[in-house]
Amino acid sequence: MKAKTAAKARVKVQDEVAGGERSVTLLGATGSIGASTIDLIKRERGRYRVEAVSANNSAAALAALAREVGARFAAVGEQAAYRELKDALAGTGIEAGAGEDAVVEAAQRPAQWVIGAITGAAGLRPTLAAAERGAIVALANKETLVCAGGLFMRRAAQAGATVLPVDSEHNALFQAMSAGRRKDVRRVILTASGGPFRTWTAAQIRAATLEQALKHPNWSMGQKVTIDSATLMNKGLEVIEAYHLFALKPDEIDVVVHAQSVIHGLVEFRDGSLIAQLGSPDMRIPIAHCLAWPERIDGPAARLDLAQIATLSFERPDLARFPALGLARRALEAGGGAPTVLNAANEVAVGEFLSKKLGFIGIPAVVEATLAAAERRGLTREPASVDDALAIDQESRLLTRELLPEIAAKAS
Ligand code: MG
């Protein structure tokens, strides 16, 4: 995020806001971030107008929320869901579209704000389309940055787009960074809750079930990110995300385990000042910050009662019990397409774990094996384009599937 771009955008935004409503497009509207965004928009009637909404295949849910917020266009990613969407929108005047191009079209429609909340690599093309027309992109799709971060940030800067981080840790860093000049930042610290297995022994983690992994102590989120939080891969992906969003060096990004999830991120300035952002673990806080930026709106999240919380604790992440965080760091150091491979392998592995075909410790094992094999096959090259990043993603998924049976047998 270049300070100059953000400052220019700030002036532009204030002019537009003075004139009335903000137009918003919501990509990935039926997920958890989508639901929180819709909740905020409904509380601020008159402040936001919804241009377009998209979902992967939940046609009925998408149609219902398109009607609710009065969107002009609704798109489903899966062609097969078109008929259902079209029928559910009959008589409303809301246009329906289907397929990847329709989701890209949703991103290209003239909304000032685009909330990029599609899960996984599927979010890459539409999110980039929004950035390339110079929109203000509130980015919740971390895979866009992990798979093609260099490319995405370059194109966004060229188009004069503003990228606002929705991910709670990065939103915290973004807020804390405004306390000083970018060049005076010495390092950033991402906090991690440690997930449901923070205090478990290696033997207990080995026997962890799906139900146990889905019980996040603090946050209520989608299944994929909940499992990523249990392995700490989520924090690894967030280190890569921070690297691209704030143009940091890998060794300027630290991770600390903070079980209460009250502090979401900290920025250390050269004079030794550490600026933190605190708040309840409720995604409506960072989403509200992005939707209202550079202003603020009323948020419905519970207020912190510091005396009741009483204690904030911190510990170093244990890379022996949670090897996924170390794998992500190694992928970032390796650079090129290694983070793309890491992300693809992890998505496949988490999918297998969710369908109970792979044990919990099989997830990092599969990712590690895929990274090693990908390097031998030349898949860790720097993606030259979005198509190339998606090709690396696809080839990595195939590679992961080849490696899965042997690792699943060992890790069960
Ligand atoms: Mg996060």
How would you describe the overall organization of this protein?
This protein has 412 residues and is an alpha/beta fold. The chain folds into 2 domains: 3-166, Rossmann fold; 184-279 and 313-411, Orthogonal Bundle (Rna Polymerase Sigma Factor, Chain: A), CATH 1.10.1740.10. Helix content is 50%, strand content 14%. The protein is built from 18 helices and 11 strands. Strands 4-3-2-1-5-6-7 form a 7-stranded parallel sheet, sandwiched between helices. It has a 4-stranded mixed sheet with strand order 9-8-10-11, covered by helices on one side. Helix 7 (142-158) links the parallel strand 6 (136-139) and strand 7 (162-165). Helix 5 (100-108) runs parallel beside helix 6 (124-132), helix 7 (142-158) packs parallel to helix 12 (233-245) and helix 7 packs antiparallel against helix 16. Mean pLDDT is 93; it is low at 1-7. The structure holds magnesium ion. Magnesium ion binds at residues 167-169, 238.
Largest β-sheet summary: 7 strands, parallel
| Secondary-structure element pattern, one letter each | HEHEHEHEHEHEHEHEHHHHEEEHHHHHH
Per CATH, the class of the largest domain reads: Mainly Alpha
Bound molecules: magnesium ion
Domain count: 2
What is the total tally of β strands?
Answer: 11
Q: What is the CATH topology classification name of the largest domain?
A: Rna Polymerase Sigma Factor, Chain: A
Share of residues in helices: 40-55%
Class of secondary structure makeup: alpha/beta
Which geometry do the CA atoms define? globular
Rg calculated over all Cα atoms: 21 Å
Low-confidence stretches: 1-7
Q: What CATH architecture of the largest domain would you give?
A: Orthogonal Bundle
Instruction: Provide a count of the helices.
Output: 18
Average pLDDT over all residues: 93
